[in-house]
Amino acid sequence: MKYILFILLIILLVATYLYYDRKLALIKKQLMITSNQYNIIRNKYDTFKRPETNLSIRFINPSYKSGIIATDSKLYIAPLDSSQILRKTNIRMEVIILDSAEINNQTWYYVNLPIDNCINCRGWINSKDISIFYSESSSLIKSN
Question: Could you tell me the pTM of the whole model?
Answer without folding.
Answer: 0.61
